[in-house]
Amino acid sequence: MAAPVANNLLDRVDLTQLIIDHVSVDRIVETVDLDAVIARVDVAPIVDKAVHDVDLPEIVRSSSNSLASDTVHRLRLQSASADDIVDRIAARVTRRRPVDSAVATQPRSP
What we know:
The protein has 110 residues and is mainly α. The protein has helices at 2-12, 15-22, 25-30, 34-40, 43-54, 56-94, 101-104. The protein starts with a helix and ends in a 6-residue tail after the last helix.
């Protein structure tokens, strides 16, 4: 007799709303051992999906190429600067006038 009455009562009561109104989710969550929950999670498939979805290998390749290109550009600038310094030192040692790079690159007239 109690089962049909209980079922009838449960059919009329919105249990979800009852829980929302009367249960403190924060108090329940405070009792959860999050380390134990995380230990049960298989992280590898999550990481694989994330790497696949964002195409991480392409991001790494692109970043590496950009970094390499930037490094080569900086090395070229430093090399040119070093060449200028060596040229000025050589000009001082040999007591010749420094060569203007714009004039030096123009072909000589016959």
